[in-house]
Amino acid sequence: MVLATAAKQAELNTALARAFAALADPTRCAVVELLRERPQRASDLAAALDLAPAGLSRHLRLLERSGLVAADAVEHDARVRLYRLEPHVFATLSDWAAAMQDQWSQQLQAFKRHAEGGASRRGTKRGKP
Q1: Which of left, alpha, beta for 12 (phi over 0: left; psi -120 to 50: alpha)?
Q2: Mind giving me the DSSP string for 64-90?
C-alpha cells in the first residue's frame, strides 16, 4: 500500500516538474495566456507573439509534452492543428499550490501560537501580569 502511494507521489512530482519547467519560459507562459481565451491555431499564436512558426513550434511541443496543452486536428484541413489548454493539469497545479499554502498557513499559525505563548510566559516570570 505504501509503495502504491509512493509511486503515485513520484508520478505527481514528475508531472509537476514538467509543468513548472514548461511554465518557466516567458514565451510559453504567453502561449498559455493566449490559450486561456480560446483554442487557437499555431499560426495565430505565432502572429500574436510575433514569433517565427518554427520558433513557436518548439514551445508548443514542450507544452504538449508537459501535458499543459493538447492539439486537435481541424476537420477541413489535416495540416492544421488547434491548440487548447488541458484543464486537468492546471487543476493538479492548483491543488498542489493550495496544499502548499495550507501547510504554510498551519506552520505559521503554530509559530504564532508558540511565539505568543513564549511572550506571555516571559512576562509571567518577571512578575508581570
Answers
A1: alpha
A2: HHHTSEEEEEETTEEEEEEEEE-HHHH
Residue with cell 486537435: 72
pTM: 0.72
Rounded to the nearest 5 degrees, what angle is found at the Cα of 9, between the Cα atoms of 8 and 12? 85
DSSP letter at 113 equals: H
Q: Do 8 and 30 touch, CB atoms closer than 8 A?
A: no
Which of 14, 19, 24 has the alpha carbon at shortest distance from 89? 19
Residue with cell 507573439: 49
Residue by residue, pLDDT tens for the chain (129 residues) are: 456 688 888 888 888 999 999 999 999 999 999 999 999 999 999 999 999 999 999 999 999 999 999 999 888 887 889 999 999 888 888 888 888 887 777 777 888 888 888 666 665 555 555
